[in-house]
Here is the input.
Amino acid sequence: MKTFLKILLTALAVVVLATILPGITVTGYVTAIIVAVVISLLNMFVRPLLIFFTLPATIVTLGLFLFVINAVIILLADRLVDGFAVSGFFTALLFSVLLSIFRSALFSLLKENKKSINN
Here is the structure.
């Protein structure tokens, strides 16, 4: 249930960012849910491989290369999902940074609600 809720919150963040940022288009809510699932799967399987193979660049840039990896994940999701379009690399970079911020804020609200229910 928690994973399903996180995917829905990520889809909500994708829809909000698509309306705010120029260069990002999402055709509908179902597409946003599919984008959230694809991004989650890419983060689970592809991102660790990219981090491993680009470890020297990540170390030299003191971790800033991870932003590039996040943008590549967004561009891969663009290629895999019909109805989701990203206009370029820098748009994907900004989208990935803002998506991370939105997700952390939404997930922290989810954790606070859980704490208040248990106490």
Notes: Residues 2-118 form one domain.
